[in-house]
C-alpha cells in the first residue's frame, strides 16, 4: 500500500501485506535510495516485515565473522544472511519485528546540519512516537568513554551510537545510515516485543511527516 502524506511517500509492505524476503527488503531500500539520489523529490518512509528469522549485517562487516557471532548467539545455520546498504552491526530479525527505512533529501534539513544532527533529529521523533503509545523511553547521549568502551561490539543491539533510545538500561532502537550527495537512507529496527506494532507505525508516520 502506498500513500502521500505531506512530502512523504509512505510504503507499507509490498505484495498485499505479505512479508517479502530479506534480500528483497535490502534491494528495495537500495533502489529507493538510488532513485532519489538521481531525482530527490519526495522523501520515502517504508515499513516492512520479515517472512522468517534472518540476519542483516552492516555494509563494512565481514560475513564469516557475522556468521560465527550469529551461530554463537543461537541463530540456526539455515537462516539467510543479507548485507545492508548501511553501516552498523548485525541484526537478527524475526516476523514479529517492525522495521522501517527512511530515504530523505538532504535539503529537508538545515544546510549546516551534520550527519549526527540529522540522526539526532530523527531519533527525537522516534522517541516521541514511542512515548506517545506508552513506552517511556528516553534519548540518551553516550559519554566519550561509554562510546569508546562499546565500539568494538559487532551486534547492533549492543553497537553504540552517540545518541541511543533507551528503556531503562536496554537499547530498544537500532539505526544505521548511508549518506549520498543528495539524500540520506536510514534503516531502523525496533528491539521490543510487548507493544502494538500498528500503533507505533502510525505514531512514527505522524511524527516523521510532521517534523522533518
Tag the structure with descriptive keywords.
32% helix, 212 residues, six-stranded mixed sheet, BirA Bifunctional Protein, domain 2, three-stranded mixed sheet, alpha+beta, single chain
Describe this protein's structure.
With 212 residues, the protein is of the alpha+beta class. It has one domain: BirA Bifunctional Protein, domain 2 (2-Layer Sandwich), CATH 3.30.930.10. The chain contains five helices and twelve strands. The strands form three sheets. It has a six-stranded mixed β-sheet with strand order 1-2-3-7-12-11, with helices on both faces. Strands 5-4-6 form a three-stranded mixed β-sheet, with helices on both faces. A hairpin with a 3-residue loop joins strand 11 and strand 12 (183-190). Helix 3 (115-132) crosses helix 5 (197-211). The relative contact order is 0.19. The mean pLDDT is 88.
Q: What's the number of structural domains?
A: 1
The percent range for helix content is 25-40%
Amino- and carboxy-terminal Cα gap: 22 Å
Strand numbers in spatial order across the main sheet? 1-2-3-7-12-11
Radius of gyration: 16 Å
Give the topology.
Blueprint: E1 2-5, E2 8-12, H1 22-38, E3 43-48, E4 54-57, H2 63-72, E5 80-83, E6 91-93, E7 99-105, H3 115-132, E8 138-141, H4 144-150, E9 163-167, E10 170-171, E11 173-179, E12 183-190, H5 197-211
Parallel strand pairs: 2-3, 4-5
Antiparallel strand pairs: 1-2, 3-7, 4-6, 7-12, 8-9, 9-10, 11-12
Helix pairs in contact: 3-5
Summary?
With 212 residues, the chain is an alpha+beta fold.
Amino acid at each position: 500500500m502506498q500513500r502521500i502524506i505531506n512530502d512523504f511517500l509512505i510504503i507499507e509492505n509490498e505484495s498485499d501485506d505479505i512479508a517479502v524476503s530479506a534480500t528483497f527488503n535490502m534491494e528495495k531500500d537500495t533502489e529507493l535510495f538510488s532513485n532519489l539520489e538521481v531525482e530527490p523529490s519526495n522523501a520515502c518512509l517504508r515499513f516492512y516485515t520479515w517472512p522468517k528469522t534472518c540476519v542483516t549485517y552492516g555494509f563494512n562487516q565481514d560475513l564469516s565473522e557475522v556468521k560465527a557471532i550469529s551461530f554463537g548467539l543461537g541463530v540456526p545455520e539455515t537462516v539467510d544472511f543479507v548485507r545492508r546498504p548501511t553501516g552498523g552491526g548485525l541484526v537478527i530479525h524475526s516476523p514479529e519485528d517492525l522495521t522501517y527505512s527512511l530515504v530523505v533529501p538532504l535539503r529537508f534539513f538545515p544546510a549546516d546540519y551534520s550527519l549526527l544532527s540529522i540522526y539526532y533529529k530523527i531519533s527525537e521523533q522516534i522517541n516521541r512516537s514511542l512515548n506517545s503509545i506508552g513506552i517511556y523511553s528516553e534519548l540518551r547521549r553516550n559519554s566519550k568513554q561509554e562510546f569508546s568502551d562499546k565500539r568494538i561490539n559487532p551486534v547492533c543491539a549492543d553497537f553504540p551510537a552517540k545518541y541511543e533510545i533507551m528503556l531503562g538500561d536496554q537499547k530498544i532502537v537500532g539505526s544505521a545510515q548511508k549518506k549520498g550527495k543528495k539524500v540520506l537512507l536510514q534503516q531502523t529496527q525496533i528491539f521490543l516485543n510487548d507493544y502494538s506494532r500498528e500503533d507505533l507505525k502510525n505514531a512514527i508516520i505522524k511524527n516523521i511527516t510532521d517534523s522533518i
